[in-house]
């Protein structure tokens, strides 16, 4: 989880920084990602706002989420059977990517969006796909990463 939290710090998103880390069955890191603009698109040229009368002026249509980037930036040929650590409960779009990529377990740190329709859709798909998801259980020494304090 610490790697996911540290990865989140790379995001230029001024509101929600999300990080993800994929580990294989031997707990070796095989992919890392954070939320950001697509390759070749400057973080400074596209909007980071969450609301506007014009959806084209929000980040919603442009940002690549951390989970997508972790899968796309993976070091191995596939992530079938791997576990994804993510700092925020996954949205429905990222859940579809994780299911299709073969991720079998998801451990998340924060569930501040759990009440949203996107999270409810994620829960339904994960249940139907038999993918284990759970909240990170804190124990050990506190780790402070940016604004987040995590016990590992």
What do these coordinates show?
This protein has 152 residues and is of the alpha/beta class. 24% of the residues lie in helices and 23% in strands. It has four helices and seven strands, in the order H-E-E-H-E-H-E-H-E-E-E. It has a five-stranded mixed β-sheet with strand order 2-1-3-4-5. A two-stranded antiparallel sheet has the order 6-7. Helix 3 links the parallel strand 3 and strand 4. Helix 2 (66-72) packs parallel to helix 3 and helix 3 packs parallel to helix 4. The longest helix is centred in the last third of the chain and has 12 residues, at 117-128. The N and C termini lie close together (8 Å).
Q: Roughly how many Å apart are the termini?
A: 8 Å
On the 0 to 100 scale, the average pLDDT is: 92
Shape: globular
What share of the residues does DSSP label as strand, in percent? 15-25%
Task: Assign a percent range to the helix content.
Answer: 10-25%
């Amino acid at each position: 989880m610490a790697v996911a939290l540290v990865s989140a710090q790379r995001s230029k998103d001024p509101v929600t920084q999300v990080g993800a880390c994929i580990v294989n069955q031997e707990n070796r890191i095989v992919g890392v990602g954070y939320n950001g603009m697509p390759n070749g698109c400057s973080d400074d040229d596209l909007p980071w706002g969450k609301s506007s009368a014009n959806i084209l002026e929000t980040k919603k249509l442009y940002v690549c989420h951390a989970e997508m980037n972790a899968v796309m930036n993976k070091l191995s040929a596939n992530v079938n059977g791997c576990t994804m650590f993510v700092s925020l409960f996954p949205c429905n779009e990222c859940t579809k990517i994780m299911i299709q990529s073969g991720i079998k377990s998801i451990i998340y740190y924060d569930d501040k969006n759990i009440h949203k329709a996107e999270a409810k859709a994620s829960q339904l798909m994960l249940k139907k796909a038999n993918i284990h998801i759970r909240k990170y259980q804190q124990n050990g020494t506190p780790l402070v990463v940016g604004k987040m304090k995590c016990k590992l």
